[in-house]
């Protein structure tokens, strides 16, 4: 075969380049419809999960502009979202949850999804309570991604074994197991000292000491008697005792770093929602073997739910078309399965086959259904499902200040709880 001359090969290269430029221009214009999605899924497990949606959008020819704002619990993401919205330039979709969807709806900034919802039969697909949260003024403005359970305890079985303890099922057992774990040379409870993580642990303790009726009165109905009463003092006191099980370097630590301490085996346990399972999964670990999950001690009959959802901002033309494709994809089985396997949560639609899911996810689904029937299903205050953002912020301040204070009495913190709920209302 004759060698191509410089001239012919140059020509070929030029031609190939020209073709590929034309192709990519054509591709670019075919890809013009793009969604920009704000979220705070930035840990290893979370990023794997978010990528599922990006890839599904791209497979349908849409562009994905990632607007990830790091910070567990999403406080920073919400601050950034507010400033983008105030400058008149919100993204097409944003991770917004619970009552906050209504707040954005009231500002008139959200776009409706009724056409997609009708075509895809969302009314029949979604449990009534979930659908309710996704609507503003009767119209769908958001789409649910998953159901997370917040009241979980995670543990490293090797650490428990080294300490000669079982997975604790009551708060007394938790304190006893913690002491044994410390004596065996490990950190008993991995924690990150950030307000939302403190609140995440606090609401599980309050649920254990006071039960679901008290949880509902205090953290959902904001009843001043419950907020300022004896049961609150007991919850706060027990919560503060948990500091004994935590290490001195916890201040400011991210939640996924705390999870990695359990994974590596420097710590025994962590109280955290099941996004922590996303980290165990990303590390290639198997539930029930390499790590253990159980309801947070004393909360077996309760389920604090946290539903992630994507709310849609008012956009026009092609961007709206891409946004509608995003909304449709989110509730399709392919996304629901792949995303939730990576994220640690369970699907938002109850009709899916769960055979690919692990034992923790199946327990989550069973407990979700059981507690829904028996009255133990409650919205997570710490994860924006129970009260509006201003009240939540004021409660966070009290919880975290009390947890970190050397001398604030639990009675004083309970008084501040009452003021927090009233001042913010
Ligand atoms: C969100 C989860 C997220 C977690 C940690 C929660 O509020 O619902 O999706 O993984 O915060 O960032």
Task: Give an account of the 3D structure.
The chain is α/β, with parallel strands linked by helices and 425 residues long. It is 55% helix and 13% strand. It has helices at 6-30, 44-59, 75-86, 98-106, 114-120, 122-125, 128-134, 157-163, 171-183, 195-220, 224-228, 230-241, 255-264, 275-282, 317-331, 333-343, 359-374, 389-404, 410-424, and strands at residues 34-39, 63-68, 93-95, 135-136, 139-140, 142-144, 146-149, 152-155, 187-189, 267-271, 292-295, 303-306, 309-312, 346-347, 377-379. The strands form four sheets. A five-stranded mixed β-sheet has the order 2-1-3-13-6, sandwiched between helices. A four-stranded mixed β-sheet has the order 14-7-12-15, sandwiched between helices. A four-stranded mixed β-sheet has the order 9-10-8-11. Bound molecules: beta-D-glucopyranose. The site of beta-D-glucopyranose (BGC) has 10 residues, from loops.
The hetero molecules present are:
beta-D-glucopyranose
Kindly provide the radius of gyration, computed on alpha-carbon positions and rounded to a whole number of angstroms.
Answer: 24 Å
Query: What is the number of helices?
Result: 19
Tell me the structural class.
alpha/beta
Measured distance between first and last alpha carbons: 83 Å
Overall geometry = globular
Give the integer mean of the pLDDT values. 93
How much helical structure, as a percent, in the residues? 55-70%
Strand line-up across the major sheet: 2-1-3-13-6
The proportion of strand residues reads: 5-15%
Biggest β-sheet description = 5 strands, mixed
Give me the count of strands: 15
Q: Low-confidence parts, pLDDT < 50 over ≥5 residues? A: 1-29
